Amino acid sequence: MSVILCTAGYDHTIRFWEALSGICSRTIQHPDSQVNRLCISPDKRYLAAAGHHTVKLYDIKSTNPNPLLTFEGHTGNITGVAFHCEGKWMVTSSEDGTVKIWETRSGTIQRSYNHGSPVNDVVIHPNQGEIISCDRGGSVRVWDLAENNCSHQLIPEEDVSVSSVTVASDGSLLCAANNAGNVFVWALIQTFERTQLLPVTHFSAHKEYITRILLSPDVKKLATCSADHTAKIWEVADVDPTVPTPLPVSSINTLPSSPNNNGNNPNPFINGNGIIHHGSSDSNFNAIANTNLPDAPKPYPLEATLQGHQRWVWDCAFSADSAYLVTACSDHYARLWELHSQQVIRQYNGHHRGAVCVALNDYSEAR
């Protein structure tokens, strides 16, 4: 199968589609719960379906409707799932407040990191040495797998749930979106000792809840999906990350202290990762907060607003060439958009309830 496209949602089914014809070629029943997220392994062999408490791993090429393996260990809805580049391990996030790393052959938990708040999303840095997750408490955390700890904690807006994160395929950018409809962008600077995060820009993208944010494979586009019934495409503009931008003070990095494995620290103002919160008594706080900053950073230019969805747009996936986007919507449909014309060129009809997740792999060969 050169193109693998699948969708799932609240009707307890996973559907495989012929991308060009729009025909549903296979349906897998998922009776235990709705499906929250889907992920195709880089070698196109497996599909991971994240549900209420479990992740089920299916053989894409087999006609067997039963999962090869079931990953058990979370106690809440699983909200994110991603594969290691060679499929050796898998990472998940959950409303139970944890991020877990699994050995994919045995289904055993290798590590578990605690957010202390329901976790909404997780992605793997392309260096395969860091994972990035976000939570309902309003934080974005970077977990260093070599050091086995939380190396950074960012708080874009105090007490606003961060709904989704995405990292550039070349490791250059980290983007996060929150429930207030805002987007935040950081440059990821690789140094000899550690990754540094420098604010690039932030802007209001939607007036309502952003459900998903995703950078295109060529890192030239940024997609956002929203409860406002639209998906939007933004141009990833070149911004000098060394020029400071007036992000909220609570997202500014200082020199890190030593966190424990969960990234926790009893100090209520400065956490173990050196991120200053509002109200900090730290002597450097006022100096950092009052640095002469330029005018508000320019948002990424809006390229397109994809209209035609009838309800919440929950998820999206770019094609390998970044020219197309598939969206999944509560109106039961998934849609294939040609981004140049901003037109729907295929609609996938078959779900009887909301389609909330989509996975697409159309790379010419396994990565």
UniProtKB/TrEMBL annotation:
Q: What is this protein called?
A: Target of rapamycin complex subunit LST8
Any one cellular component term from GO for this entry?
nuclear periphery
Per its UniProt record, what SMART domains does this chain match? WD40
Family membership: Belongs to the WD repeat LST8 family.
Q: Pfam families, per this entry?
A: WD40
Task: Mention one GO molecular function.
Answer: protein serine/threonine kinase activator activity
Keyword list (alphabetical) reads: Repeat, WD repeat
